[in-house]
Amino acid sequence: MQVRRWRLAHGRELELGAEALIMGVLNVTPDSFSDGGRYTSVEGAVAAARAMIEEGAAIVDVGGESTRPGAAPIAAAEEQARVLPVIEALAKETDVLLSIDTYRAETARLAVSAGAHIVNDVWGLRKDAGIAEIAAATGAGLVLMHTGRERQKLPDVIEDQFAFLRGAIEIARAAGVPDEQIMLDPGFGFAKDPGENMEIIARFTELADLGFPFVVGTSRKRFIGHFTGRDVADRDVGTAATSALLRMKGAAIFRVHDVAANRDALRIADALLAAERARD
Questions:
Q1: What backbone phi and psi angles, to 5 degrees, belong to 251?
Q2: Are the CB atoms for 101 and 63 separated by under 8 Å?
Q3: Cβ(146)–Cβ(120) under 8 Å?
Q4: Could you tell me where the DSSP H helices lie in the chain?
Q5: 20 or 32: whose pLDDT is higher?
Q6: How much is the pLDDT for 38?
Q7: Is 189:144 a contact under the CB 8 Å cutoff?
Q8: 192 is catalytic
Q9: pLDDT at residue 69 greater than cutoff 60
C-alpha cells in the first residue's frame, strides 16, 4: 500500500498507508444518533478523548452538530460554544491530532485557532466553500466527504462518487489548498441505502483512481444494522468487520466510536497485508 504524508495545521503531518489509523468520534451534542448527550461537559469530553487515545486513536474528531438524518440544525454560535472549549482543553492537555467536524468556515477557523489540525467537512465544501480558504490559509488537513443529500444522484454509485468528489477537489484547489492536505471520504450512510453502501465497499478499489487517500466512517451506521439486525448500540462488531474489509481495499483512516474493537480488527488486516507483501 502506497505510503504518503498528510500535511496538517500547526506544522504537523501524518504518515498514511504503512498502517491503519483511527479517528475517534467525539460528539459533544445532545442528539447524535449513537452517542448524543454522553459528553455534555468539557471534563467528560476530555476524559472520553483520553480513553480513545489510550485505546489507539491517532486523531480525535470533535463535532458539535448532529448530522444524523432529520437532525435539527443549530446556530453557529451554539456549535462553537460546544466544540471550542473541548478543542482548547485537548490541545493543552494532549498531543493528539484534533479534527473539527463542521461545514461552517467560521467554526473551522476558530477551531484551528484553538488547536485543531484537521477540518472534516461532511458537505464536501457545498455548504460553505469558505472552508477551503481556511484550510489554504492555515495549512489544515481537509477531509472532503461525499454526500447524496439535497441533490439528484447519478444512478451508478461510483460514478456519483467521482462526480461529487472531483467537484469538491476542484473547489479546494481553486482556493489554494495543496493536494497534500486533502483526504476524501465516500460518506457511508449519507443519503445511501444499504445496497448502495455495500456496493461502495465492494467497489472501493475503483476510488483509488481519484488519486487521494481515504477516510472511511461506517461506524454504527444504519446499513450495518440492516445486515446484522443489531440496534445502534450493538453494531461495533459489524463496524469492525467493515473496517477490516475497507483496509484490505486501501482505506487509510477509520472514523469510529469504539476504538478498541476496530483497532484489533485493523491490526489483523494490516498483518494480512504484510503477509501478502512478503509473498510478492
A1: -65, 150
A2: yes
A3: no
A4: 42-55, 76-93, 105-114, 130-138, 157-174, 194-202, 222-228, 236-248, 259-279
A5: 20
A6: 62
A7: no
A8: no
A9: yes
Q: How far is CA 272 from the centre of its chain?
A: 24
Q: State the pLDDT at residue 280.
A: 79
pLDDT digits (tens, 9 = 90+) for 6-21: 999 999 999 999 999 9
pTM over 0.85: yes
What does residue 60 show for φ and ψ, rounded to 5 degrees?
A: -115, 125
Catalytic residue (one of 153, 249, 255, 263) = 255
The separation between CA 163 and the C-alpha centre of its own chain, rounded to angstroms, equals 20
Task: Give the DSSP letter string of 51-77.
Answer: HHHHHT-SEEEEESS--STTPPP--HH
DSSP 3-state of 182: strand
Please state whether 57 falls in left (phi above 0), alpha (psi between -120 and 50) or beta.
beta
The number of C-alpha atoms within 13 Å of 171 and in the hemisphere containing its C-beta is: 24
Task: Give CA separation, 48 vs 44, 134, 144, 233, 258, in Å.
Answer: 6, 28, 26, 17, 11
All 3 cell numbers of residue 186?
465516500
Is there a contact between 262 and 247 (Cβ–Cβ < 8 Å)?
A: no
**Distance in angstroms (rounded) separating the CA atoms of residues 38 and 55:** 19
- Judged by DSSP in three states, 6 sits in strand
Give catalytic status of residue 249 as yes or no: no
Q: Which three cell numbers stand for residue 189?
A: 450512510
Strands (E), 138-230: 141-145, 182-185, 215-216
For 218-264, write each residue's pLDDT tens digit.
999 999 999 999 999 999 999 999 999 999 999 999 999 999 999 99
Residue of 153, 221, 235, 249 marked catalytic: 221
